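seq/struct pair 1
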Amino acid sequence: MFMKEDGTISQWEAGVVTHSAKETEAMAAAFAELLPPDHILTLEGDLGVGKTTFVRGLARGLGIHDEITSPSFALLHVYQGKRQLLHIDAYRLKQSSQFDDLMVWDIVQSPWNMVVEWPEKIADRLPAGHWKIKAAIIAEGSHRFTLTRL
């Protein structure tokens, strides 16, 4: 089980394992303390791997108490807490240039964090230096989240 005091960058880079949605949310809330402000985090992984569950926990860690849902159809949800959280789901974008239509750089307010699901769809639109979490199912109900700092 993930323990808040164990949440170091090196442990995230080695991979953190959770065994339930509740654990995933708890560890993502703790991860919020490690994520620098004004920074992008991409989430990679197959459908159903827990990306939105991770974002829900991250939002709680950023002091956001709104209902957190997948922006699959809206493409972008914006929340306000200790930081502004922009949650983007690029899955339905046909071209990376469609990211520009979201006008995120016009609405972002520091301090902010942007979380992008399906980042491979807009890779050429993401600035260098963002962080990536790869999510994977490792057994029934268990997930591994591995951080890479690019």
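seq/struct pair 2
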Amino acid sequence: MTRLVYLSIRAHGEESYPLESCGVLLGASTPKGWQAIAAVRASNARTDSAHDRYSIAPLELVRIERDARRQGLEIVGFYHSHPDHPPLWSATDFADAHWLHYSYVITEVHKGKAAVTNAFLLTGSSEEEKRFEQQTIEVEECSQDQRPSQVSKH
């Protein structure tokens, strides 16, 4: 992912603290895997427990996906924060993850400051066989042919 995306998702987690932040990663598939060049902030639709759960409303996700296509991009993953909790997927994160072969990025926000950021790839051939595998996050500087959009809120 670009440095702008990496810094943006961490800043979003800090700004949302003590609630979970969430958003969508946009980019393209490359021979090395997904490349995230933009992050789009989403509203956390959870009203019952937004301090330790997140949900992106389906209509908001459709709007983000349409906007991405207009920019020649596609959804490559999702991100959220874990306020005062390690950046590891939870049972709820796993149960709510349905986009096979997409990245799920989690940032620990400890006492209001972004700490560790981890990524997991949801693998498997079906919902019954899905599993998370640790991914390595490679943070790159933006090249001139990449035009990362600012983190925006829908």
